[in-house]
Amino acid sequence: MKIIVGLGNPGKPYEHTRHNIGFDVIAALAEKWGTPLTNSKFNGMYATVHRPEGKVLLVKPLTYMNLSGECVGPLMNYFDVDVEDLIVIYDDLDLETGKLRLRQKGSAGGHNGIKSLIQHLGTQEFNRIRVGVNRPPAGMKVADYVLSKFTKEEQVIVGEAIEKCVNAVEGSLSKPFLDVMNHFNG
């Protein structure tokens, strides 16, 4: 079984903000696969999808970003999923808007959601898809920026990035993550 986790914050005010790009990718996968996230466990919403490549769990932690590991860790234990079969999708300030960067391991890089995952999983070695949201304009606080919505111009770029994320996730179901990483990072 694979587990695909999109990071974000629950609730209307956070919908389609920069910080919720992970939720948006999970929503796009659920829509494409015709599987709404209707199950709830460990403070997260999820759907179990039976694909030709095997079973896949789509997950949105509802713990708020900074406590994402409190949902993901117990879910992985409950479903007995190995950390090698986890992919986490989240926003990255250090990449230009819409740019993807796939990695197999790494530090939290200041991202509190990833910090929580590392703490609860006991490792930094898990697959991730980072989606660029760019840095805030001069004078704007990072917290305000990541909780803001994309501009009209950015929405087009972000829509394309979400589509690429969906393709990367689908590719990772049948190919080693390293191959998918080399394709999308190249």
What distance lies between the first and last C-alpha atoms, to the nearest angstrom? Answer: 27 Å
Strand order of the largest sheet: 2-3-4-1-5-7-6
Mean pLDDT: 96
Q: Structural class given helices, strands, pairing?
A: alpha/beta
Shape: globular
* Strand segment count: 7
Radius of gyration: 15 Å
Number of helices: 6
Uncertain parts: none
What's the main sheet like? 7 strands, mixed
Order of helices and strands: EHEEEHEEHEHHH
Query: Which percent range fits the helix content?
Result: 25-40%
Fraction in beta strands: 15-25%
Descriptors:
globular, 7-stranded mixed beta sheet, alpha/beta, 6 helices, 186 residues
List the helices and strands and how they pair.
Elements: E1 2-6, H1 21-32, E2 39-41, E3 44-51, E4 54-61, H2 69-78, E5 86-92, E6 100-103, H3 112-121, E7 127-132, H4 142-146, H5 152-174, H6 177-185
Parallel strand pairs: 1-4, 1-5, 5-7
Antiparallel strand pairs: 2-3, 3-4, 6-7
Helix pairs in contact: 1-5, 2-3, 5-6
Site (Discriminates between blocked and unblocked aminoacyl-tRNA): 9
Binding site for tRNA: 14, 64, 66, 112
InterPro entries: Pept_tRNA_hydro (IPR001328), Pept_tRNA_hydro_CS (IPR018171), Pept_tRNA_hydro_sf (IPR036416)
